[in-house]
Amino acid sequence: MNEFQIETAQNVGINQNVANIGDRMIAYIIDSLIIWGYTIMVFILLGLINLDFGDSWAVYLLMSLPAFLYYVLLETFWDGKTIGKYVQGTRVVKLDGSKPGFSNYFVRWILRIVDVVITFGGAAVLSILIKGNGQRLGDIAAGTTVISERQRVSISDTILEELPLNYQPVYSQVTVLNDKDLQTVKNLYDEAIRNGQHNVILHLQSRLVTLLEVDPKEKPVDFVAQVIRDYNYYTQQ
Questions:
Q1: Strand ordering across the sheet containing 3-7
Q2: Is 117 helix (H, G, I), strand (E, B) or coil?
Q3: How, if at all, do strands 90-94 and 13-18 pair?
Q4: How far is it, in rounded angstroms, from Cα 139 to Cα 104?
Q5: Cα(84)–Cα(205) distance, rounded to whole angstroms?
Q6: Residue 131 burial (C-beta neighbours within 10 Å; 0-12, 13-18, 19+)
Q7: Between 20 and 30 A from 189 (CA), which of 59, 96, 118, 177?
């Protein structure tokens, strides 16, 4: 699964996981089955009440509108999701990190005619494979992409840290923190180290100094790392 980084309006980098082709295809199949199922049900229902299509085409058209507008309506009112996307844990987002508006969803929906209908999905697949951030033509025009909201958790994502047998802690005050606090600190610290965000490290140091009521001698980056290790030491005893 590819990653790309967006920059929010506050200049904070956020890594997003691009939804892979498999998830997007399965979501499309689920959505298509729902659309076709609804359309068939409408025609059967209207047929049972003896509505002739030639004389009552406007009724058929009106009843078919939810299927026709399925993508743009659901994505607009369900935070970038359709039923297929919900099942697969994916969602439409803007590249700049802000929430897409109706115009973004509308552009994606209109260009679905080219991406999916006319080219039988070929243009969408080709564009997604070429673009590193998972955009089909509709996404490129709308400034959006589809991300996966599934969390990939490894041991490095937890608060657990391997410590040497002769490890000597420095700050016993870390016991005032809890696992949730430390996880937040570690996530911010790891992200700041990866992206060279020294201001985040300084903010973490300032906050921890206040909470722990200590006077650190280390550099900010070393102090935060020491706090993480010390918390591991005391909680693993």
A1: 3-7, 13-18, 144-148, 90-94
A2: helix
A3: unpaired
A4: 8
A5: 43
A6: middle
A7: 96
